[in-house]
Specification:
With about 300 residues, this protein is of the alpha+beta class. Helix content is about 50%, strand content about 15%. Keywords: DNA-binding, Transcription, Transcription regulation.
Length: about 300
């Protein structure tokens, strides 16, 4: 897999103009002007840059689970360093919009270098992009114009600080808008939760726990055609629990059923549930239930 260590080499690969700053590039179309058109397709690649792009789809459908989305209002897409990128020519983009690319070193020594890692949407897939309303588009465009002014001005000691401040503002707005998107798509979120629970049930019933251990969150997300981070964030918004917490709940419920079989020791129950060490199972059970597996078994016998 090809990896690009510098911003310039990545832009060269895309067929885009070289940046005015070695660690930052920006393209913004206005009125009848258009963004440079990057290559139509690419095998899997990675780079050391963050990307924030706003574009509109004019042809082709992107699927999320069993649902197709209308992207006519435009989508804001976030990409993190070393995230695997791959695309083909099946989706046609309208070239109006903007693209901001910056090397991770651009943030070194700043507060944003720490804060940016907290934004889960940098790990989302393209079909989990942020869909902006016309009002939201105007708010984002205003911030982007401020960045563009500084980018094209002669660089001085204040330029980087101002640009990073504007990037920080843009990301905070994006975080707010994603909250709105989660709220407005309750039906989709419920469907995602149902799919997740069904996949968990299937995994447990298939007898794979003892052979393969606790379900792999990433593999489950792939089966559902969503990213691991998007799945976790959606479930967190919908239920207040992470994917790991949901898996633990299923494990504990399954454990309760097995514990009621008196001919099995606690260690045998742990191994059957895919735990390599029985002590870990006992700690998890007590953490979730407030009593040990042995105490639970004795309590049931008393009742």
């Amino acid at each position: 897999m090809q990896h690009f260590k510098t911003l310039s080499s990545y832009l060269d690969y895309l067929g885009l103009p070289r940046p005015e700053h070695p660690l930052l590039s920006m393209f913004n179309s206005k009125d009848d002007s258009y963004l440079p058109c990057p290559r139509e397709s690419s095998p899997p690649i990675t780079n050391d840059c963050y990307s924030i792009s706003f574009k509109k789809y004019v042809e082709g459908d992107l699927n999320y689970g069993r649902t197709k989305y209308d992207f006519t209002n435009g989508a804001l897409i976030f990409i993190a360093p070393r995230q695997v990128l791959q695309w083909d020519n099946s989706i046609v983009f309208e070239q109006k919009g903007f693209s901001i690319n910056f090397h991770e070193d651009f943030l070194k020594g700043t507060e944003l270098a720490l804060q940016i890692k907290k934004y889960g949407f940098f790990s989302y897939l393209v079909n989990e992009a942020l869909h902006l309303s016309p009002k939201e588009e105007k708010q984002i465009e205003s911030i982007v114009e401020n960045i563009e002014i500084e980018y094209h001005n002669n660089q001085d000691v204040f330029s980087k600080e101002i640009i990073i401040s504007q990037l920080d503002t843009l990301l905070k707005y994006a975080n707010r808008f994603y909250e709105r998107q989660f709220l407005n798509r309750k039906g989709i979120s419920n469907d995602l939760l149902e799919q997740f629970n069904q996949h968990l049930c299937n995994y447990f019933q298939s007898g794979q726990l003892q052979e393969k251990g606790t379900p792999n969150i990433e593999k489950m997300a792939n089966k559902m055609s969503v990213s691991k981070r998007y799945l976790s964030d959606t479930l967190k918004k919908e239920t207040g629990k992470t994917t790991t917490e949901h898996i633990h709940l299923h494990l504990i419920n399954e454990a309760k059923n097995i514990l009621l079989q008196p001919n099995k020791s606690i260690s045998e129950v742990a191994y059957e549930l895919g735990f390599e060490y029985p002590q870990y199972f006992s700690r998890l059970f007590k953490k979730k239930e407030g009593i040990s597996p042995t105490e639970y078994r004795e309590l049931y016998k008393m009742n």
